[in-house]
């Protein structure tokens, strides 16, 4: 017997025979198909929710980045204004008759 014939015979042994299913088996198969469809639908909803949350997270990260830039700018402006005020006060307190 050649190798291909042996392989074919092994494959026949592994594949279940095509027999007619009983009514109970058909009902169970339909129940399983329904459960599979529900599971796939839940998975699709979970993936959509994950995508929405990821999008919102990226938006929040961008917003936070903008807020940090604004904070840095405002701190720098405050320092500049405080220094200008100090210089202004110092120059006004120096006697003019020197």
From TrEMBL:
Highest taxon in the source lineage: Eukaryota
- The parts of the chain that form a coiled coil are 29-63
Q: What keywords are annotated for this sequence in UniProt?
A: Coiled coil
Q: What is this protein called?
A: Protein SKIP34
């Amino acid at each position: 017997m050649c190798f291909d014939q042996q392989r074919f015979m092994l494959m026949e042994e592994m594949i279940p025979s095509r027999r007619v299913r009983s009514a109970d088996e058909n009902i169970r198969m339909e129940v399983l198909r329904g459960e599979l469809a529900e599971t796939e639908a839940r998975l699709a909803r979970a993936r959509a929710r994950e995508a929405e949350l990821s999008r919102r997270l990226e938006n929040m990260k961008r917003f936070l980045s903008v807020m940090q830039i604004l904070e840095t700018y405002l701190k720098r402006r405050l320092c500049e204004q405080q220094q200008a005020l100090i210089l202004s006060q110092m120059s006004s307190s120096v006697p003019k008759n020197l």
